[in-house]
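sorry to bug you again but im stuck and you know this stuff better than me. theres a chain ive been looking at and ive put its sequence and its fold in token form underneath. id like you to explain what the token line says about the fold, in plain words if possible. anything you notice is useful, everything is just below.
___
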Amino acid sequence: MTAPKPGGPVRGSTTGRPLMAALDLFGRRWSLRVLWELREGPLGFRALQQRCGNMSSSVLRQRLGELVESRIVAQLPDTTYELTGLGREAYEALRPLGRWSQRWAEELGTAAEPEA
């Protein structure tokens, strides 16, 4: 499994600029959900799978592998997963986008309960 990395071709960019690599990584199905679910602390595979609406185990394994390879998530010796320093920074960087999206939904009249 190969996670997108800055410096090489990624989806939407042949140059692999860091932002494009990050957008490719976080644009993959379930990646942001995994980041969201790990925001409060470590979780085991099954607990994480349940919190992600029982996504398939093969997709979760693939996403976790990519996020571990990208150093966004770490697997601890007890086999739980947690955000790394980079992962926590990514979560914090995405919080303003979450607030903006809530305002956007309100503007469109489709607002739901805020998550972040």
